[in-house]
Amino acid sequence: MRTLIASLLSPPHCSGCGAPGPEWCPVCARTLPSAHWIDVGLRTLVLFPFAGPVRRTIIDWKEEQRRAARLRIEAWFAQGLAPLLRAAPTALVLPVPSSRTAERSRGARVLSEALDAVLPAGRLSTQLIAARPRRDQAGLNREQRARNLEGSMRWEGGPERPLIIVDDVVTSGATLREAARAVRVRTAAPVCAFALASRESQDPVAHASAGLC
Questions:
Q1: What Rg, from alpha-carbon coordinates, does the chain have?
Q2: Which of 20, 92, 158, 201 has the greatest number of beta carbons closer than 10 A?
Q3: How far is CA 194 from CA 84, 169, 170, 190, in A?
Q4: pTM, rounded to two decimals
């Protein structure tokens, strides 16, 4: 009954622009570019720039916990990770851990929940963990981000499987580089990354079709 009342009070709307109707309207769908690889010190497949409808949808998902945005985010994760999982059928998917503050822990939780909703059983790993507390990255420049993250993650998994590190948004790439450093301490297996969006303009790089990374 509460769900019915909530749906009547809050009719369906586009999670990108807010227009009444489907959770992702045709106008917003036409604004989305294709996925591309970038190199931030780690080969990373990115779906979109962090702007416009994509930015609003990600914020609504992480900060507002809106159902329409969550469904769209899950669809994007499924879409973006599918070719990587086909290329590496045994790969594990590692969401980046939180900084242990309440707000960031919630962000890490919703990231793991979204991945768990779309990944085949046994592909999600939570063995990439925070090794020490760190500041939130907001407002830090590139050098400060790198110092803040140095040594902040630890990989507790084994050495035998390829790894796909996942974050929602890439800024400088410092978080992904630290995650890659942590896993490479214990494994020589292929490592690459995936993100829904990039905050900064990054030049696309060529990527070999064979293999994961």
A1: 17
A2: 92
A3: 9, 9, 9, 14
A4: 0.81
